[in-house]
Amino acid sequence: MKNGALAKVSRRERQILDVLFRKGEATAAEIQAELEDAPSYSAVRALLRIMEDKGHVRHREDGPRYVYMPAVEPEAARRSALRHVLDTFFEGSAAGAMAAMLGDEGIRVSKEELARMEALLRSAKKGGR
């Protein structure tokens, strides 16, 4: 799968990936049961076929059932999703995203998280990132 390919998944495809990352593997019926405002079973199957064609999921056969699992690592999916959010809402600016997050009173950031952010910033400065 080419870099950034996960950024091009639909909202429903992201929901399916969330289920698969959480459960590790699942049948179409199990995925459907986990989805909010779930589409029909046949729609879930169609989405899984599309996602398999895109390289986002893979399956194994378990008797007559297909059992699906993510074809990408959760960390790669997180990076891709974050890149998509940065590009879509913050013109690619990590500083803009951080400013929005820290300026939002609805988002609570613990002292431990702030200390970790400071350490990451120091490390990034030293490494030129």
Oligomer: single chain
Counting H and I runs of at least 4 residues, what is the number of helices?
6
Q: Percent helix among the residues?
A: 55-70%
Q: Report, as a whole number of angstroms, the end-to-end distance.
A: 25 Å
Total domains: 2
CATH topology of the largest domain: Arc Repressor Mutant, subunit A
In the CATH hierarchy, what is the class of the largest domain? Mainly Alpha
Rg, nearest Å = 18 Å
Secondary structure: number of strands: 3
What does this protein structure show overall?
The protein has 129 residues and is mostly helical. It has two domains: 5-70, Winged helix-like DNA-binding domain superfamily/Winged helix DNA-binding domain (Arc Repressor Mutant, subunit A, Orthogonal Bundle), CATH 1.10.10.10; 92-129, no CATH class. It has six helices and three strands. The protein has helices at residues 11-23, 28-34, 41-54, 74-89, 94-103, 111-127; strands at residues 26-27, 57-62, 65-70. It has a three-stranded antiparallel beta sheet with strand order 1-3-2. A hairpin with a 2-residue loop joins strand 2 and strand 3 (65-70). It starts with 10 loop residues before the first helix and ends with a helix.
